[in-house]
Write a structure and sequence with these properties.
Helices cover 60% and strands 3% of the residues. The chain is mostly helical and 276 residues long. It folds into two domains: 134 residues, no CATH class; 114 residues. Strands 1-3-2 form a three-stranded antiparallel sheet. Helix 8 packs across helix 11 and helix 11 packs across helix 12. The N and C termini lie far apart (45 Å).
């Protein structure tokens, strides 16, 4: 990545993975005399990226808990590509040729001799799944319908619900959501994300509440959020109280408990009340 961009490594985790995905997307371009080169000139790379995001979300949702990343058979991958194309628009070339590009000229997906495809690394899958939840919330297939009166799923309610139901599966995806928002100008969406993760009532937090609070604290700390508005200060105070509720909670492991204490210290030392 340093050689390709002729620059230092990105400091933000979201920027690092975005640059990595862009690099892998053009990992092995065909030579000019390769017949595939002419075909790929018509390929809509942005829509292929959006299709890969939906596939990443599907694999994240379906993979076994004991696996280090999901995989999909070639026939199922073709089905998912057709479905993604209906959602994001024409990819520019036939789906079979898109698959050839993904199999031979793209470094994001890798295949084995049995025609099983998977993302090159679980973190790439998780990053792209996070992109799908933020950018394509109308297209991701959530495990269950939204609550009555809530309307369709949207971000950040979607990742908050997923994290609440299965924190192990969605933990890194939730952290990637925070890292992605951290690449934006301004911090309003980050504060809104932290607020959504926090339960309204803090008495006797359930397991899902505990992990959402923990993720909210990590997102706040990783992005060094500043309370520039009274609404930000309200969320900050609620975060402090929530973290106090889970300090040394029995379902958190030792490193997580230590991290909670560090975040609480950082929250108390760094922030000043917003001017009203």
């Amino acid at each position: 990545l340093i050689h390709e961009a002729n620059r230092q490594m990105p400091r933000n985790r979201g920027e690092l993975y975005e640059e990595t995905v862009r690099l892998l997307n053009k990992w092995n371009p065909p030579s000019e005399d390769d017949p595939l080169a002419q075909k790929l000139s018509k390929l809509d790379y942005n829509r292929v990226r959006m299709a890969l995001q939906l596939i990443a979300f599907n694999l994240q949702r379906q993979q076994r808990k004991d696996s280090e990343g999901g995989y999909v058979k070639q026939a199922e991958l073709l089905v998912q590509l057709h479905d993604a194309q209906r959602r994001v628009g024409k990819l520019g070339i036939p789906i079979e040729e898109v698959l050839e590009y993904l199999a031979t000229r793209n470094g994001i997906l890798v295949s084995d001799p049995a025609d099983h495809y998977r993302f090159i690394h679980l973190h790439i899958q998780e990053y792209l799944a996070a992109c799908a939840l933020i950018e394509q919330y109308n297209d991701v297939a959530m495990p269950r319908p939204s609550r009555p009166g809530m309307g369709n799923w949207s971000f950040p309610d979607n990742i908050s619900a997923l994290l609440n139901e299965d924190h192990e599966r969605w933990r890194e995806v939730a952290l990637f959501c925070g890292a992605i928002l951290g690449t934006e100008h301004g911090q309003d969406r980050l504060w809104a994300y932290v607020e959504t993760l926090l339960p309204t009532l803090l008495i006797d937090p359930k397991d899902g509440d505990v992990y959402r609070i923990f993720i909210a604290g990590v997102v706040w700390s990783s992005n060094e959020l500043e309370a520039r508005l009274p609404s930000h200060e309200t969320v900050r105070k609620h975060l402090i109280e929530a973290l106090k509720r889970i300090d040394d909670h029995h379902i958190l492991d030792v490193p997580e408990c230590k991290q909670v204490k560090e975040i609480l210290k950082k929250l108390g030392a760094r922030q000043k009340p917003a001017a009203i």
